[in-house]
C-alpha cells in the first residue's frame, strides 16, 4: 500500500513539473514552431483525456469490488463514483457521469478507440461521439465498428465532428437497423425545454424535439417571418422568428407585457435608490440594478400584468440571510424556498444544475437539524451521490453559509454560498 502511494506522489510531482514548464515556456520561436507546439499540445490534451478514462474505469471497478466484498448491495455499489470523478475534474455530476460512461465503454468494449485517444490521434469529443453513436449496438457489433473505424488513425484523419457523427450513424444503421429504430423511439421520451443565461440579460431557450417536429416548427417560423418581412417590417428575420415564437407560446402579442413572477434578491439601495449592486433573479442569475428597477416599474404600470417580487435581504454585518429552523424532518415550504434562493444552483462545487432537493448537510439520522444552517440546495444527482457509502458532509460556522463534503477517498471539498447584494448599513456604518 505504501508503494502505491509513493508511486502516485511521484506521478503527481512529474505532472506538476511539466505544468510549471508550460508556464515558463520559451515563446521567442518562429511561427512554424508555434504551429507545431499547438498540435503537440492538442495531442497531449487528448492523451490526458485517455489517461483519465483509464483511471476512471479503474476507480469504478475497484470501488465496486471493495463495496461488494463489504456486503454493499449490488444496486448501491456504484453510487457516488460519478460524483467523485466530477469533483476531481472540476465539473458537474452530469459531466462526471458522461466521462464515466465513456471510460467504461472504452476500457471494456472499444480498445481501438481508447488506443487512439491515449496516443492523441483523436480528441475526447470524437471518442465521445464514437461511444455515444454505437451505444445501441451489441458488444460484438460495437467491437466490430470500433475496429473498422479506429484500427488505424489515418481512417479518421481530417474528419470533422459532424462528418464523423454522420458516418458512424450511417454505419450503425447498416449493422443493426432495428436497434437504431428502437433507440429513436425511446429518445422521444427525452423531449424537453430548458433555459440558460445568455450575455446582455438575454436567455437561451433550448427545445429538444423529435427531428420531424423540430424541423416543422423551425420551417413554420421561417416561412411566417418571410411573410412579415415582405410586408415591410423593419425587424430582421431572426428577430421576427423569435417574436413569433413568444407570441404563439404565450398567446400574448409584442405590445402586451408578459405575466411574470420574479424571485428577486436585491439590496434596498439598488431597489429603492440609485445603488449599482446587481440584483439576482432566481433561475437566471445577476442582472444590472437599473434593469431590475425597469422590470419592476413596468410591471407596476400595467394593472393586467401580475408580477410577484420576493425580496430577500442580507444582514448588514455578515451578508447572510436570516436563518430559519424547523423541527420537521422535511424542509417546510418557506424554509425550502429560502434555501433555494440563497443557494441559487446546486451547491456541489463546479455543478451549475438547478436545485431540485433541499438536503440536510449533516444527515438527519446523525442529529442534523432541519434549518437554514444545516440545509443545502442540491441537484438530484449530487444528493443521491452523497447518500453513497463513506460520504459525509458538515456545516462550517462563518459569516457566509459554508459546508464541507468528504468523499470516500478522503478528499474534502468546500462549498460557500454565493454572495448576496449588500444592504445599506446606515449612516453610522464604518
Automatic annotation (TrEMBL):
Q: Which Pfam families match?
A: DUF222 (PF02720)
What name appears for this protein in its UniProt entry?
HNH nuclease domain-containing protein
Residue runs in coiled coils: none
For bias type Low complexity, the affected ranges are 397-412
According to the UniProt record, where is the region Disordered?
390-430
Task: Tell me the ranges covered by the HNH nuclease domain, including all copies.
Answer: 334-384
In which organism is this protein found? Rhodococcus erythropolis (strain PR4 / NBRC 100887)
